[in-house]
Amino acid sequence: MRILIIHGPNLNLLGTRETSIYGTERLSDIDAKCLALAKELGIDVEISQSNSEGEIINLIHSARGTFDGIVINPGAYTHYSYAIRDALAAVSVPAVEVHLSNIYAREEFRQKSVTASVVCGQITGFGSNSYLLGIRAIVELLRNA
Ligand code: DQA
After folding, report:
1. Residues contacting residue 51 through CB under 8 Å, at least 6 positions apart
2. What CATH number is associated with residue 65?
3. pLDDT tens, 60-90?
4. Residues ≥6 apart with Cβ < 8 Å to 52
5. Is the pTM of this model over 0.90?
6. 56 is in which domain, residue-wise?
7. What residues are labeled active site?
8. Quick one: which of 17, 24, 67, 71 could link to 13 by a disulfide (CB 3.0–4.6 Å)?
9. CA dihedral in degrees (20, 54, 50, 135; nearest 10)?
């Protein structure tokens, strides 16, 4: 089983970015945890980060036929990118949306996700554990399919 993990914009700055919200873990720490979990679950994961909407769309397209599932944190694009929403809907590769912070407990503009309706489910508010729960969720979903 192959899972594509996509980190969206500004997540490359984790560790120093708004640490009171996102904590002090760096993206490389989260990636290491995802890779360790993948090993434990006996799956392959590939991890990409991009600050660009078009690149994220291309990554989603590239999952067609090469990945069984996607775990995506679209960052701020979550709240307004119809193009990323349409890409997720177009490829019909099952996806889970994850967020470090609880987007529903934050500013009003963050409380809407335009991508949530085209993914299998959303995990929000558990810090880096959101990614691990997201991986477990997509793997169980695929294994039970
Ligand atoms: C985020 C929440 C978004 O609102 C924000 O723009 C991010 C990170 C999260 O993981 O909590 O960049 O997706």
Report:
1. 8, 9, 10, 12
2. 3.40.50.9100
3. 999 999 999 999 999 999 999 999 999 999 9
4. 9
5. yes
6. 2-143
7. 22, 99
8. 17
9. 80
Q: How many domains would you assign to the chain?
A: 1
Ligand 1 site, residue 72, Cβ cutoff 6 A: no
Nearest atom in ligand 1 to 8's CA: 12
Q: What is the pLDDT of residues 86-140, one digit of tens each?
A: 999 999 899 999 999 999 999 999 999 999 999 999 999 999 999 999 999 999 9
HEC profile for the chain?
A: CEEEEEECCCHHHCCCCCHHHHCCCCHHHHHHHHHHHHHHHCCEEEEEECCCHHHHHHHHHHCCCCCCEEEEECHHHHHCCHHHHHHHHHHCCCEEEEECCCHHHCCHHHHCCCCHHHCCEEEECCCCHHHHHHHHHHHHHHHCC
